[in-house]
Specification:
Layout: E1 2-3, E2 14-16, E3 41-48, E4 65-67, E5 76-79, E6 85-90, E7 96-101, E8 110-112, E9 115-119, E10 124-129, E11 135-140, E12 150-151, E13 155-159, E14 164-169, E15 175-180, E16 196-198, E17 201-205, E18 210-215, E19 221-226, E20 242-244, E21 247-252, E22 256-261, E23 267-271, E24 276-281, E25 285-290, E26 294-299, E27 304-309, E28 320-322, E29 325-330, E30 334-339, E31 345-350, E32 360-362, E33 365-369, E34 374-380
């Protein structure tokens, strides 16, 4: 572990600020790597989770889970990586509290009532004690589990890359039910959607371009809807659906962005958007990242508000909203902090190998995994807009 109060680690890490954005920019391309905007980020600490420096083009998709405590010094976070070790760290300092070998991890652990639930790349769902990392149970499936599970009072719900959805008993890991979608014979995109749970319904997307509402208690189908539009291939619904009020919002790589009635599956609107992927909301807008296209802001009626180009910056990570900021990572260019109202980029953070993982916010502290295998704790300063 290396601690520093600055962001000067050498040539492999750059954090730029304090110069206005040029008036003339290419609207398709990612923001150029030059000094831009406001100095909103500062480093607290970094920790090497995995050594990826020898890989030709490393990628790490795992994000940490934060377990806040009444006293900030006692808060913990948990993070895995492709190296196979799950770490429990002090959120304040990055010091190791415990570590366990669980297998390669590309997802974020979920903390629920003193236990950790984490999926692995070899297809397992693992339950451990958050306090000391003791493994309680492990359930194996036939596809990588690349998204975090949803945990309720009695169930653990999760999906895998083989287009399966599983429900397990939360305490014992005992099988409850399974849903299987038909995987297309032709090529599909890497990754898969996670599960969104809203009341009695669980929503999941699949590589055949369908969005399905399942009854969480039994796994039976409430409704199923195709979102592939006119596309014939690469129609994957790989973004975790977003449920807000009476609607569910989802994206398909081939069909674009959709708003559906969460009870019936009726399509209220569709915005055609090539390569539509990860989607999030602040309750007033939707923010969608599209591969090699850009990050888009859409109002709740399906109207495009703005777009920030990302072409040439690499594959986008799921965007995250924090206050007035929108944060998004690119697998080649690193993390960008933008104004969520306009898309204007305030600052970027380049850890040397880009960012494929979703940033995690806890108050004004951001935790970020780089493709090089380092976990960064960064302070996010707020400015009056």
């Amino acid at each position: 572990m290396t601690r520093s109060l600055t962001l000067a680690f050498g040539a492999s890490l750059a954090l730029f600020a304090c110069r206005p954005i040029p008036e003339s920019v290419d609207p398709m391309n990612a923001v150029a790597k030059r000094e831009v905007g406001l100095p909103v980020l500062s480093l607290s600490w970094r920790f090497q989770v995995a050594d990826r420096t020898e890989d030709l083009k490393p990628q790490e998709f795992s994000s940490p889970a934060v377990n806040p405590a009444p006293h900030p010094a006692d808060s913990m976070l948990y993070v895995g990586s492709q190296a196979g070790t799950l770490f429990a760290l002090s959120a304040a300092t990055g010091e190791i509290i415990w570590k366990r070998e669980v297998g390669a991890v590309s997802s974020r652990p979920i903390i629920f009532r003193g236990r950790l639930y984490v999926g692995t790349d070899d297809g397992s769902m693992v339950c451990l004690e958050a306090f000391d990392g003791v493994e309680n149970w492990r359930y194996s499936t036939r596809g990588p589990v690349l998204q975090p599970p949803v945990v309720s009072d009695d169930l653990v719900l999760f999906s895998n890359e083989a287009d399966h959805v599983y429900a397990l008993d939360r305490e014992t890991g005992t099988f409850r039910w399974q849903y299987k979608s038909e995987t297309p014979e032709e090529f599909t995109l890497r990754g898969h959607a996670g599960i969104s749970l809203d009341g009695e319904l669980a929503f999941a997307g699949f590589s055949d371009g369908t969005l399905v509402a399942l009854r969480a208690a039994t796994g039976s189908v409430a409704w199923i809807k195709s979102l592939k539009g006119e596309a014939g291939r690469f129609v994957d619904v790989d973004a975790t659906p977003v449920v807000l009020d009476e609607r569910v919002y989802a994206s398909s790589s081939g069909g674009g962005v959709y708003a559906l009635d969460k009870t019936t599956g009726f399509i209220h609107w569709r915005l055609r958007l090539t390569g539509a992927g990860p989607i999030t909301t602040d309750g007033e807008r939707l923010y969608v990242a599209a591969a090699d296209q850009g990050v888009y802001a859409i109002d709740m009626g399906g109207n495009l508000l703005w777009r920030q180009g990302t072409q040439g910056g690499g594959e986008p990570a799921p965007p995250v909203v924090s206050g007035e900021y929108l944060l998004y990572g690119l697998s080649e260019d690193g993390l960008f902090v933008a104004d969520k109202s306009t898309g204007r980029v305030f600052q970027y953070f380049d850890p040397g190998y880009g960012v494929s993982a979703e940033p995690i916010l806890e108050g004004d502290r951001m935790y970020l995994m780089s493709n090089g295998g380092f976990l960064y704790a960064l302070n996010l300063e707020r400015f009056a807009q």
